[in-house]
Description:
Elements: E1 2-6, E2 13-14, E3 22-24, E4 27-29, E5 55-59, H1 62-71, E6 79-81, H2 92-95, H3 97-107, E7 112-116, H4 125-128, E8 134-139, H5 145-151, H6 158-170, E9 174-182, H7 189-196, E10 202-207, H8 215-225, H9 230-234, H10 239-256, E11 260-264
Parallel strand pairs: 1-5, 3-6, 6-7, 7-8, 8-9, 9-10, 10-11
Antiparallel strand pairs: 2-3, 4-5
Amino acid sequence: MKINTIQCKTLLTKSRLPEADYCINPYVGCLHGCIYCYGRFMKRFTGHDEPWGHFLDVKINAPEVLAKELARKPKRGVVLLGSVTDAYQPVERKYRITRAILEILLQHDFPISVLTKSNLVVRDLDLFKQFSQCEVGLTVTTAEQGIARNFEPHSSTPKQRIEALATLHRRGITTYAFIGPILPELTNLEAIFTAIVGKVDFVMAESLNLRCGNWENVRNLLKNKYPHLLPLYQSRFSRTYWAQVEKELRILSEKFKIPLKGFYRHRDEGG
Length: 271
């Protein structure tokens, strides 16, 4: 793993995501090493020779840059922390870049949305409670530790993430589980809903995206660990398949009384 510190020129960027007006990525790259990661397309902009998941650039001056940007009084809007990185990288314990960013956003009363795979997020509960508008989500791709270890080797365990959701929710923070990407025949949706009930305000979900340079990694893992699923994944699924997944999500949402705020389906690759 290669970790560098870099100077960034800008930090607050306009978001193309429907749920946020701005994005902030405190780091370049990610050390969670998720096999399916869509963010690997960013590697071509970084100048790194290392594979995605094996390098991290720390934007060491990010708080100062953000302070200058907000001093220019941009239009107030929701800021998403972590669109192509995880704001709670393991090294966040050392550098505390994300925490410093939160402190500055709080001063300007910008609404925030956080999405992470790390239970380190609980560290900043004291700041979250001070925001007038704040939501914190944790990605729960599976409730099964074995599957998570294979696909998300350096992330917090599913149990740790769900416990983090419970802690935040209990302390009055708006919380959600992001079920994505859904791994066909591996993601047990009912098991996830059972585990998160009473711990979240809503759920969001996303289909698996195999169009972002991650297919080779996914294919190799399937060959080694789940060879019986390789033909299904090679078929790239169908519109009917994801329609059935969405139907199941809505049924579970009703059953467990957890609102489904959105299901993001990537462009179908099968027939």
